[in-house]
Amino acid sequence: MIERILFGCHNLTAGSSSRRSRRLVEAALGLGIRRFDVAPSYGLGTAEAMLGRALGARRHSVEITSKFGILPARFGFAMSWAREPYRALRGLLPSASEGRQDVPAIGVEVSRAAGFPFSASTAVRRSLSRLGTDHLDALLIHERIEGQFARGLGEELADLKHRGLIRRWGVSGTKANVEDMIGLLGSPDIVQVAAKAADAFTSAPELRLFNLRHGTEGASAAEVAAALAVQARTLLATHSNAAVLFNTSSVVHLELFVAALGG
Question: What CATH number labels 2-262?
Fold first, then answer.
C-alpha cells in the first residue's frame, strides 16, 4: 500500500527549517515512500529546490510530480527564514492553533492561475532547474489556466511529453476547475482533487486524492494518524486507480501515519 502514498511537499521550506525539511524527505524515503508531490508555490517558493537537494543522487529512484499555474507568495524566500520562529511563537498560544494540523504558518500562494505570466514550457524549464533533474514524472496544471497561455496548451503538453521533459500530465485543484480544464484539454493522465470529490472522477486513468480529514479534534497524534490511515485505506480500497497524498511538517506524524497504514 505504501507505493500508493505520495509525500506532499507543501511544508518543505528553506531558511531556518532546512534541516527539518531534509529530515522529512529522509524519513519519507526510509519509510518506503518513493513518490513526491511538489509545486513552485510550495514552501514559500523554496520546496522544489529543497526537494532536489534532499534527494540528490537518489532522484532517479523516485517519482517527482510538480505543477504550474500558481506563483509563490511575494518575498516568500525572506518569509521562509521567519517561518520557524513564527511556529515557535504560535506553539506558545494554544488558542491560536487549536484544531489546526500542519497549517502553513505564513505565506500563501497569491498569484492564481488566471494571471500566470508564462507558458507551461517555461514553467517546466524552471522547475527542472530548481529540482536539478532532466524530467518530471508528472506535470499538473495547478487549478485553472486562462488567457494567452491556455491557447494551444494541449499541444504544448503533448510536445513536452514527446521531448521527454514530462512523462505524464494532469490537472489538480477544485472539482470545478478540474472539470473546466478537462473540458478544454481532453482527458488527462492524472486527476488530483480533494478526497471528497473522488466520486466525480472515477474514470480517470490515475486519481490522486488530498485533504484527508481526521475529525478527531483534540486527540493524540497517534489517534489522528490512525484516523487518517483508516480514511486512506478506505479510499484506496474503494478506488483502484487512486493514490493518496499525505502532507505534514512532522517526522513523527509521518511515521505514525505509515505505521497505522500498515496496521
Answer: 3.20.20.100
Report the 3 state secondary structure along 204-228: CCEEEEECCCCCCCCCCHHHHHHHH
Under 8 Å between Cβ of 80 and 15: yes
pLDDT tens-digit series, residues 143-194: 989 888 898 999 999 999 999 999 999 999 999 999 999 999 999 999 999 9
Q: Could you tell me the three cell numbers for 188?
A: 488527462
Place of cell 473540458: 183
Measured CA to CA, the distance from residue 176 to residue 160 in angstroms comes to 26
Number of other CB atoms surrounding residue 33 within 10 Å: 20
CA atoms within 13 A on the CB side of 260: 19
Q: Are 241 and 204 in contact (CB under 8 A)?
A: yes
Provide the β-strand partners of residue 64: 36
**What is the distance between the alpha carbons of residues 174 and 72, in angstroms, rounded to a whole number?**
19
The model carries a pTM of 0.86
Residue 143's CB is within 10 A of a number of other CB atoms, namely: 23
- Domain residue spans in the chain? 2-262
Cα–Cα distance measured from residue 232 to residue 238, given in angstroms and rounded to the nearest whole number: 10
Residues 186-206 as b or e (16 or more Cβ within 10 Å = b): eebbbbbbebebbeebeebeb
Regions of the chain with pLDDT less than 50: 96-114
